[in-house]
């Protein structure tokens, strides 16, 4: 069973999105087509299928896990901790 909180995390990098943002809608099925501030994935394109999710994540990490909007990166940011936010079905 999914919790609504799972729908607030990026499927690629695990970033918890802003309070009123749901990358795949409140039901987890309707993509917003917005970009993740962290990994730059466009919700609804590169994160539709597990193979693409894993491939995008691997490439993002290999490139240094660079934030798309660096000014939003927390000072105490930890890649390992953030990756824990990825919903189980997308790991």
List keywords for this structure.
mainly alpha; 0% strand
What does this structure look like?
The model has no long low-confidence stretch (mean pLDDT 91). The chain has two helices and no strands. Helices cover 20% and strands 0% of the residues. The relative contact order is 0.21. It has 91 residues and is an all-alpha fold.
State the gist of this model.
This protein has 91 residues and is mostly helical.
Sheet having the most strands: none
How many runs of DSSP E, i.e. beta strands?
0
What is the distance, rounded to the nearest whole angstrom, between the alpha carbons of the first and last residues?
Answer: 16 Å
Low-confidence stretches: none
Q: What percent of the residues sit in helical stretches (DSSP H or I)? A: 10-25%
Q: Class by helix and strand content?
A: mainly alpha
Radius of gyration: 12 Å
Please count the helical segments. 2
Order of helices and strands: HH
Strand content: under 5%
Mean pLDDT: 91
Shape: globular
């Amino acid at each position: 069973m999914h919790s609504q909180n799972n729908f607030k995390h990026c499927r690629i990098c695990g970033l918890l999105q802003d309070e009123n943002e749901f990358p795949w809608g409140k039901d987890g099925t309707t993509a917003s087509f917005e970009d993740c501030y962290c990994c730059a994935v466009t919700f609804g394109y590169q994160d539709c299928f597990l193979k693409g999710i894993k491939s995008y994540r691997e490439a993002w990490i290999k490139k240094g896990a660079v934030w798309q909007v660096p000014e939003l990166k927390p000072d105490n940011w930890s890649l390992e901790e953030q990756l824990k936010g990825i919903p189980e079905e997308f790991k």
